[in-house]
Specification:
alpha+beta; Helix Hairpins; Heat Shock Protein 90; five-stranded antiparallel sheet; five-stranded mixed sheet; transmembrane helix; Sig_transdc_His_kin-like_C; two-component regulatory system; HATPase_dom; transmembrane
């Protein structure tokens, strides 16, 4: 069968109409046939009633003579007659006469001996219709007349009706098919509109969506599903694009540095110590590249539903202390002290790994942008609705014009110092993403050469 929905609908509609018209035609023909049969029965009854006066005389009547009289009177031929005289006392047929012995089989029917005068019964005998009527009753005798005539099943009316049905049915089918084709075209027109809309969507305009205006409800679910698929596709496409753009943007500088160091090393023979220094610089840049790639990959995994599946009940104070222990080793490289002055025992529902990454990135930034031999203070407050984690450093600070942009990817307030200290411009972007997943708020206040205060508001 064709894969075209339009042709399938037309085919099923055609088959359905063939069945309906056939059944309807058969019903009409059988009803007409029954009407003709009723006419035959009416004729038999009228003839039976008409002969009643003839049986009030004495003696037996002859069926042949009566048949001839009836044929002449009613112009019905062939018409066969059987007259039965039934004895009520002996309960046997007293006398019977038949107009045609070779048609005796037409009267092989039961005799209703207990019927009342005027009761009539009809029987089908092949192409004949036979009737039996009690027409007269004497003291000891019941007189029955049985008539047989051909059923008028081949009447001109039935032939004309049958011919009309045979001719009309294909014409009606053709008309119905044309109407169905028009209706199906109108019904499928929204689908064509959707197809046109879908074809207009490409990688250059993935933000475009298929409109559900004036669309039947049965198709709306399909469009909603497709639009959701477009949302997922756009999200994935944006992640790939962002990763590509971000990688090319951020990896260009360290790769250029590495290339430059190698080119310098190969220009002429050097002392072993000089090679060590060059290799050390290359190693530092390679480590920076590794950090950038890890952070880029993390940013690319922004499927918040999957991340939220790992939410569980945890102790916030333990998460903070574990993170501090991890960063202390890094802080020792600059002889920076990290002091947890006030940590409140608290239970929250969150993703432990993500929360540690967010706090760790904030502490790393505090270490990176603080001078040697300084300190970083950590403490907690709380109110009725939230816990507030505060991280304070005595670092270089951030200019006021840069504060609104610090959570943007690759934004660096002090670009020279950021590169020197190994910052990638991704740490705070990751922090913001993690806190948004948890519906936590972050606030940053900073003054140049005085320090920075970071407040994370964690919902209870």
């Amino acid at each position: 069968m064709s894969k075209s929905l339009r042709l399938k609908l037309l085919f099923y509609f055609f088959i359905t109409n063939v069945i309906v018209l056939f059944v309807y035609g058969a019903f009409i023909y059988n009803t007409a046939k029954k009407g003709v049969l009723n006419t035959t029965d009416t004729q038999l009854k009228m003839i039976s009633i008409d002969v009643i006066p003839d049986f009030k005389k004495e003696g037996y009547d002859d069926a042949s003579n009566m048949a001839n009289e009836l044929i002449e009177e009613f112009s019905i031929e062939p018409l066969f007659v059987k007259i039965i005289y039934y004895n009520k006392k002996s309960k046997k047929i007293e006398h019977e006469t038949l107009s045609s012995k070779i048609h005796s089989w037409l009267f092989d029917i039961p005799l209703n001996e207990i019927g009342h005068v005027g009761s009539i019964y009809y029987f089908d005998k092949n192409s004949y219709r036979t009737s039996s009527m009690l027409i007269f009753e004497k003291e000891d005798t019941k007189v029955f007349i049985q008539l047989a005539m051909k059923k008028d099943i081949e009447s001109p009316y039935l032939k004309q009706l049958l011919l009309g049905l045979i001719i009309a049915t294909p014409i009606v089918l053709i008309i119905f098919s044309i109407i169905a084709n028009i209706l199906i075209s109108r019904i499928l027109s929204p689908v064509k509109e959707v197809i046109t809309s879908v074809k207009s969507i490409s990688a250059q305009n993935l933000s475009k969506r298929v409109s559900t205006n004036n669309i039947p409800s049965e198709i709306k679910d399909l469009i909603s599903t497709f639009n959701q698929l477009l949302n997922n596709l756009e999200d994935s496409f944006n992640k790939v694009t962002d990763f590509s753009n971000n990688a090319s943007h951020e990896l260009k500088t360290p790769l250029t540095v590495i290339r430059g160091e190698i080119e310098v090393a190969l220009k002429h023979e050097r002392e072993p110590q000089e090679y060590k220094e060059i290799l050390k610089d290359i190693l530092e840049e390679s480590i920076a590249i590794e950090k950038i790639i890890n952070q880029l990959l993390f940013l690319a995994k922004k499927n918040t539903s999957e991340l939220k599946n790992d939410f569980k009940e945890l102790y916030l104070d333990e998460v903070i202390m574990d993170t501090i222990l991890q960063i202390k080793k890094f802080a020792l490289t600059k002889n920076i002290a990290i002091e947890a002055k006030k940590i409140i025992p608290a239970t929250i529902y969150a993703n432990e790994t993500l929360l540690k990454i967010a706090i760790s990135n904030i502490l790393k930034n505090a270490v990176i942008y603080s001078p040697k031999n300084s300190k970083i203070d950590i403490y907690m407050d709380e109110n009725d609705n939230e816990y507030i984690l505060k991280i304070k450093d005595n670092g270089y600070g951030i200019e006021e014009k840069d504060l609104p942009h610090i959570f943007e990817k690759f934004y660096k307030a002090d670009k020279i110092r950021s590169r020197k200290e190994g910052g990638s411009g991704l740490g705070l972007a990751i922090v913001k993403m993690i806190l948004d997943i948890h519906h936590y708020n972050i606030e940053v206040k900073s003054k140049v050469n005085i320090g920075t205060n970071v407040s994370i508001k964690i919902t209870k």
